[in-house]
Amino acid sequence: MKIRPTIARALGIVMLAAAPVHAETLEEIYNLAVINDPQLGSAQAVFLSRNEVVAQSRARILPNVSLVGQTSDNMRRFPTNPSPATSNFNDHNWAAVLNQPIFRLDSWYSFQQSKNIQAEAVATFAAEQQALLIRVSESYFAILRANAALSATNAERDAVQRQLEQVQQRFDVGLVAITDVLESQAAYDSSTVNVIESEGAQSTSFEPLFRLTGSNLQDVNGLVEDFPVRYPDPQNEDAWVSTAMEHNYSLIATRERLRTAERGLQIAKAGHYPTIDAQATWGHQVSGANAFLGSKIDQRTYLLNLNVPIYQGGGVRANVKQARYNVEAAQKNLDFVEKQVAEATRILYTAINTDVARVRARLRGIESSQSALDATQTGYEVGTRNIVDVLDAQQSLYRSQFQYADARYIYVLDTLLLKQSVGTLNPEDLYELNRFLDDTDIISRNTPTTR
């Protein structure tokens, strides 16, 4: 039996619609971002570049060997001779030269400084890796927040639409005044505008995922209703600050920057000290001209070079002064970052305690708003409340529902930010959070409609 093309297309559309939609999880988005995020890629390239500084500095205290050679064609004339003569000959030579620094404090301090630079690069890159975890989480929960706002505005519009229909029916039989119809119509028009704005916000909330992952993701999972909301453990602000002072990666990088500046001061002072280098040379020379020692010469030379700086035009003194100022600046910056990290940790610790209380209060607020709406609706039916009171109560209920969802998302992000502040945030935290995503709650990117 031959199926018509139109029927085949229809069957294809039905099968496509019946196929399960795969929503990207937080873990999958993070794994994509690790590979494709340009900001992390740039940070990794900078880290790898700065990581080579140790090998570069070590080379200055290790021996180096070079091989040099030279060849020349020569023409020699003797015009004063009774019978002028001309000779053409070739000279060539080669030499292997071994240089070994013996006493160079500047090179040794540079080598030690390179280790601090490398440690700073490691801490900075670790901070960037943690920042990616935060960017992914913020982008993901921005989508959930925008979708919660859209759900609230849709629910409010549907409720107002039902209210408008009921008021219109009551007006048609003379039970209410025209003002109730007009109030309901105005509320419906306003809720429609809110839905349009929320649709646009929900759609654009997916855009950061493309920047992070390089993929045009359209579906994500929502957060389960029974997501645990707990107070920070331990319940000790000073303990969190103490951990941050020890493990915060930005603070670690700043400390290494101070050590780098201190090594720089040692390097500058080393400009006053003598240097000693050893050199060994093995050479072979061949000359086409007549020579007293013969045409071929092998030579071996060992020497020590001593350089004692006496006066360099004030350059060394200026370098020392500059290095001291660099140390002072690095110390001041470290003091600032320590205070900044401590302040941020305390703020986040307090914020999470507030978030826990807020989530619980918002949940009770939904129950209270629902009870208030039921009472107001009953009062309107018996004539003790007006339609504006009903509409306000409906708006309060849906606002409470959104505020509850938003409070949970704020709690999640604040928890991750606190872990970042104390330096313990790692991918396992995201993988653990991924366990609380509801694979049955698929949030698809909205396509705003024109009304």
- Give the % helix: 55-70%
What would CATH call the class of the domain at 22-51 and 104-273 and 309-345 and 425-444? Mainly Alpha
Q: What integer value in Å does the Rg equal?
A: 39 Å
The name of the CATH topology of the domain at 22-51 and 104-273 and 309-345 and 425-444 is Outer membrane efflux proteins (OEP)
Q: How many distinct beta strands?
A: 6
Order of helices and strands: HHHHEEHHHEHHEEHHHE
CATH 4th-level superfamily of the domain at 22-51 and 104-273 and 309-345 and 425-444: Outer membrane efflux proteins (OEP)
Mean pLDDT: 89
CATH-defined architecture of the domain at 22-51 and 104-273 and 309-345 and 425-444: Up-down Bundle
| Principal-axes shape call | elongated
Strand order, main sheet: write it out: 1-2-4-5
Low-confidence stretches: 1-20
- Main β-sheet, in a few words? 4 strands, antiparallel
Count of DSSP H/I helices: 12
Terminal CA distance: 44 Å
Helix/strand/pairing category: alpha+beta
Strand content: 15-25%
Notes on the protein architecture:
The chain has 451 residues and is α+β, with helices and mostly antiparallel strands. It has a domain at 22-51 and 104-273 and 309-345 and 425-444: Outer membrane efflux proteins (OEP) (Up-down Bundle). It is 64% helix and 16% strand. The protein has helices spanning 5-18, 26-36, 38-51, 53-58, 105-172, 178-204, 207-213, 237-247, 249-269, 315-382, 387-421, 427-434; strands at 64-77, 86-103, 219-223, 275-287, 296-307, 437-444. The strands form two sheets. Strands 1-2-4-5 form a four-stranded antiparallel beta sheet, with no helix packed on it. A two-stranded antiparallel sheet has the order 3-6. A hairpin with an 8-residue loop joins strand 4 and strand 5 (296-307). Helix 2 packs across helix 7 (207-213), helix 3 (38-51) runs antiparallel to helix 5 and helix 9 (249-269) runs antiparallel to helix 10 (315-382). The longest helix is centred in the first third of the chain and has 68 residues, at 105-172. The two termini are 44 Å apart.
